[in-house]
């Protein structure tokens, strides 16, 4: 065992203290949001800072979950996230696998991909294209323009290059066609990468906010992040259209805001434990391969 001086112990203590402060800075706001969402109106008006309610109430959640627009918005976001992530992975992996093979014109296509990675059309030209294709006020406006991420495409392509070519050759010699090779051999070997970039795509779709404001003006098609903007930033709780079972004494707007934030955040957090075993490995896949 190495001898540790008082200076080593002091430096370790300082590092631990800094890490604890950073962790507290991240955890305390979440605890505050969680606690306020379960706080009664009387307690909220009486206390300035709440980390643990004296009495737990669920009126804010009853108010939100009895709301047609909030439930509809969650449904729209789930639909966009599920369908968008599936299409993202399908198009990204197929194009990346093609670019990982040698064929005439490959460098030109790869250059076009890199060009879009470095330079974008801008907000106004992109909006005009989306409008000209008739995607305004449809969920496809939040899916098709971001169908393939150039960065994910390049990393996937590098990952596919790292798969031994002998596997492809053996399968082709056994009579398999290229699509069968891709489906039965390449994709099963790509589970860490699929889980990692699937999570990236899913989080991006779930948090789609700016594109929702640009392309969706119909409140019935608002994703949850756009509705949260109306509730939290604009402070417009009238954006919530209630059913006939509305509470006669609604909770404070602040508790409604906190409850809405939690309900919009927790579903995507649930994905992390299921993908964690693939995430650490998949996040580095393809990044060091030439």
TrEMBL record:
Query: Where are the bilayer-spanning segments?
Result: 12-34, 76-97, 109-129, 135-156, 256-275
Q: How does it sit in the membrane?
A: Multi-pass membrane protein
Return the InterPro entries for the record.
MetI-like, MetI-like_sf
The record's keywords, sorted A to Z, are: Cell membrane, Membrane, Transmembrane, Transmembrane helix, Transport
Answer whether the UniProt record assigns the keyword Transmembrane helix to this protein. yes
Q: Spell out the Gene3D superfamilies in the cross-references.
A: MetI-like
- Major localisation: membrane
Subcellular location field: Cell membrane
Q: Does the keyword Chloroplast apply?
A: no
Coiled coil: which residue ranges? none
Residues in ABC transmembrane type-1 domain copies: 74-275
Q: Which family does it belong to?
A: Belongs to the binding-protein-dependent transport system permease family.
For this entry, the protein name equals Aldouronate transport system permease protein
């Amino acid at each position: 065992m190495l001898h540790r001086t008082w200076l080593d112990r002091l430096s370790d203590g300082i590092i631990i203290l800094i890490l604890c402060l950073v962790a507290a800075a991240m955890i305390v706001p979440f605890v505050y949001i969680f606690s306020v969402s379960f706080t009664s109106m009387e307690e909220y008006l009486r206390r300035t800072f709440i980390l643990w309610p004296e009495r737990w109430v669920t009126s804010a959640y009853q108010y939100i979950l009895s709301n047609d627009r909030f439930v509809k918005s969650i449904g729209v976001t789930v639909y966009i996230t599920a369908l968008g992530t599936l299409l993202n992975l399908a198009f990204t992996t197929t194009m990346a696998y093609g670019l990982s093979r040698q064929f005439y014109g490959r460098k030109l296509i790869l250059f076009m991909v890199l060009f879009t990675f470095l330079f974008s059309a801008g907000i106004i030209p992109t909006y005009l294209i989306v409008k000209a294709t008739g995607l305004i006020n449809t969920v496809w406006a939040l899916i098709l323009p971001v169908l393939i991420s150039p960065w994910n495409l390049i990393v996937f392509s590098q990952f596919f290059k790292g798969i031994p070519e002998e596997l492809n050759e053996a399968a082709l010699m056994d009579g398999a066609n290229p699509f069968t090779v891709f489906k039965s051999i390449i994709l099963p070997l790509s589970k860490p990468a699929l889980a990692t970039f699937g999570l990236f795509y899913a989080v991006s779709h779930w948090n789609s906010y700016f594109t929702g404001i640009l392309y969706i003006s119909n409140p019935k098609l608002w994703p949850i992040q756009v509705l949260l903007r109306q509730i939290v930033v604009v402070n417009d709780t009238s954006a919530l259209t209630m059913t006939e079972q509305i509470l006669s004494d609604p909770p404070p707007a602040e508790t409604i805001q906190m409850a809405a934030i939690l309900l919009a955040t927790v579903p995507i957090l649930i994905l992390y434990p299921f993908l964690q075993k693939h995430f650490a490995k998949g996040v580095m896949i393809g990044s060091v391969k030439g």
